[in-house]
Amino acid sequence: MDRIVIVGHSIAGVTCGDTLRRRGFDGDLTYVGAEDVPAYPRPSLSKAALHPDPVDIAPLPTFAVATEILGHRAVALEPEAVLLDDGRALPYDGLVIATGSRARRLTDSPREYTLRSLADAEALRARLLERPRVTVIGGGPLGMEVASGAVGLGCEVTLLNPGTPLARHLGPLLGGILASLAAEAGVRILDTVVGSVTETAEGMAVTLPSGEVLESDIVFTGIGDDPEVDWLSSSGLLVDGRLIVDTRQRVLGHPGIVAAGDVCWLDDPAGPRRSPVWTSALEQGRVAADGLLLGDDAPERDHPFYFWTDQWGVSLKVSGTPPREDVAPVVVKGSVDERSFVIHWPGHGAAAALDMRMPVPRLHKLAASRG
């Protein structure tokens, strides 16, 4: 293998490139990045967008000697060549697909905001500093972080989500605590889906299935993302529109091609699944490099799920997946009533620390313990 092209210039792609070099690959290495800036940590986008003062996001450290083609997108994949939007064809004998995902939108209005890039963060911050009325659609991690930051900047916020915010991601206990903190901060939380979203002369109107119309100056939409695979539509790599990888991040049925990060689906006995979080992209980048170089001799993906968020004045770390049903955890330290604790769900492979210092390795060890 002499020429490896990495399409995607965020944490999964950069980690894969660094790992390739560390493993001894000394051939030509080329990154292709859609944004015309050095790779940066995307979790910092919410901090940059929601802070009253400008926040500089430091580039990701990289140790790989490589050619960088930034500000250009891959538009198609041919056998042994990546086609770019400027007409260039990049030959390869090893390919890493790490193009990430794009935020889902409900309108084409400039008054609807999402958060996936530096440009998104700058635009959102500039608008929030004007203290608009904000409707947040989606009570997942990003929607709740944006709601928290908007309140902190003096905005009036309404949040729409079917069910308790974050409960689908973190279970009823943790989701309920964070939702209570949001309500106490003045957020109006409505348990509902959205009927339609339209732009008006004054702002945005969100119509609910009940017929109620919510008016605000802007809408922030945090309802998930879609993998960036359009450029692969005629490549033969997709299965029912999905880019599926095995436990070594190899694209099924296509030797010499691996994928990592938000773009891919992980093959699983229960069916393909995605893991669109920062720590998963990091681990997948490492595994993909080994899978490309070592094939069947590469170690399989085996990293515990890890998630963290800062919102409503508290910090939450989670290892593993908390039970979706209402299962009482074991309190290891602190108090659930006081919203400061380390807790563990024996038998579920999950643990969490809220507003309490807990090194991540210790949290993983606690999650894996049975007692």
TrEMBL record:
GO terms for molecular function: oxidoreductase activity, acting on NAD(P)H. The keyword Oxidoreductase applies. The keyword Flavoprotein applies. It holds the Pfam family Pyr_redox_2. GO terms for cellular component: cytoplasm. InterPro entries: FAD-oxidoreductase/Apoptosis (IPR050446), FAD/NAD-bd_sf (IPR036188), FAD/NAD-binding_dom (IPR023753), FAD/NAD-linked_Rdtase_dimer_sf (IPR016156). Keywords: FAD, Flavoprotein, Oxidoreductase. This is FAD-dependent oxidoreductase. It comes from Corynebacterium pollutisoli.
